Description:
- The protein is of the alpha/beta class.
- It has 21 helices and 17 strands.
- The protein has helices at 90-97, 102-107, 112-120, 124-140, 156-170, 197-214, 232-244, 261-267, 281-290, 298-304, 311-316, 337-347, 352-359, 361-365, 394-397, 429-436, 445-467, 477-512, 519-560, 566-591, 597-629; strands at residues 5-14, 30-40, 43-49, 57-59, 62-66, 71-74, 76-78, 143-149, 178-186, 220-225, 248-253, 272-275, 293-296, 321-323, 384-387, 404-409, 412-415.
- The strands form two sheets. Strands 1, 2, 3, 4, 5, 6, 15, 16 and 17 form a nine-stranded mixed beta sheet that branches.
- β12, α9 (281-290) and β13 form a beta-alpha-beta unit.
- α6 runs parallel beside α7.
- It is globular and about 75 Å long.
- The termini are far apart.
Amino acid sequence: xxxxxxxxxTRVVTPIGFSAxxxxxxxxxCIIDNATVEVTDGIITYVGPGRGEERDGYYQRYWHxxxxxxxxxxxxxxxxxxxxxxxERAEEFSWRLRGESYMSIMERGGGIVSTVKATRACNFxxxxxxxxxxxxxxSAMGVTTVEGKSGYGLDKETxxxxxxxxxxxxxxxxxxxxxxxxxxxxxxxxxxxxxxTDEYVDYIIREVMPVVVHNNLAEFCDVFCEQGVFSIEQxxxxxxxxxxxxxxxxxxxxxxxxxxxxxxAAELSAVSAxxxxxxxxxxxxxxxxxxxxATLLPLTAFALKEPYARGREMIDAGCAVALATDxxxxxxxxxxxxxxxxxxxIYMKMSIEEAxxxxxxxxxxxxxxxxSIGSIEVGKKGDFVVLNTxxxxxxPYYVGMNCVNTTIKGGVLYPESLIFNxxxxxxxxxxFLNKVAGSDPVPGGGSIAALNGAIASALAAMVANLxxxxxxxxxxxxxxxxxxxxxxxxxxxxxxxxxxxxxxxxKVFACFKMPKATDEEKAARSTAIxxxxxxxxxxxxxxxxxxxxxxxxxxxxxxxxxRNAVTDACVAMxxxxxxxxxxxxxxxxNLGSLKDKEFVSKLQSEADELEHLACAKEKELLDEIxxxxxx
Length: 631
């Protein structure tokens, strides 16, 4: 999704260029005070001095956003994460704090093996729902592009599943973060190949990688080139095969011992080599000579209490250094951009200017995207971060704390708190109800309809979960797991719609405030009102569609689920029907002012049919259950 947006009264802070900045270049930032940035259809079309813009709102075909002097940076690029996985390893973290070694944790069933087992047990919806929650947290910290790796399947089916989850998230029309996928089948050697690492490499090359490439599931191939995992020769063989199949190359290199992975990255002209805690001076120089991006992950060193990578020395040697979080369930269960900034500056001796370049333009270069993101320049995507200050030095100074006010993706604003309201979903129940009872027109019926859908989804998931593992329901256990996953995914969508409905109203309201002194202004105002009103009708229409789809799921869980929770399923059905009817009322009130008769007729017909079907489905289930409950 993209928008036309003009950001004015801002302080632009950005590196400049369409390739990685190396060595001393990383220190060079372009700073423009009282600047204006224009985004047209998601692409930057103007960067420069202010042009006299003064008012917020929608006019002359653009949303206008007054940044009030705050810093505007390129969207952050987190170029190394493992954010799609099952399970968690919290106990393992505590074991490590007590001094247990990696090998002893492995012997207790921990480590990557634990995550592989949990990930293999997950379905698509479970993995996607969890990964999507990470993306939302990333967006709140200013991330607009993230790299994600597979590597927690170590078999064909699960590796492909992880990559399909990432592709689904990247194809989402309302995504806040672009997802770049990396195939990391060579993350570890699975138990079934113990002592046969060469055979496992053969399996990846012969059985898995061709399917990844054929289905365009990844852009990069990575390998954990480390002592006791994949040797230099095994890594070289795998990466050469990947390169021949058209994948760009990355390496986990020299994290634990100085094995020479950084030198292999230079030899193969990899796009990046990552970790590099123990990279040798010679290999660092080779990476600089070959233009391999050095992606450093200070959060991992922090969590493991290991020495930090030598960021200062790498920059002085002429390397292009990127920073990333390494979010993963084991060695670094954190995606904190604020803490990454602080650690890079405090412990890796990078300047704040270098750290900004490392998390923007050089992060983009580590993903082969420096030509389209990573700096605020004409022709690049309208991906930005608005800080809550006019001083970018707050990024490391405000240690570990988020100073992002608003994330902008493709010209679409995703504020930490919405432009006109605080995020409704972050309120307590009491606070939310008090806000509904207030004198503001939002949150109104549309948000309440979405809330009813979320409640219905949560109840459906509860009934399914109360059925799983219970005696007498074994035949339906797989269906219940599926229902639970679907319901939780739909709950997430409804929760987002609570705020989307209020945001849609605010857009309409902003259009009515547009100037109308001249015929041109009147025409622009009318066009904007029509466009915003269409959007205000489509948001509740989608809520109604989703709520009706949920009713089918509820029907199954009510008929086949735990009989002790059957009345909970009925309440879920009534809540879902209320969501359908409430949303449709909000559709209809918007249709009355639209001039596009074909659009109106189409939505009106669909609304009438949905209302009839929803009421019939509710009656069908309630009649059945009332009969069942008769004494």
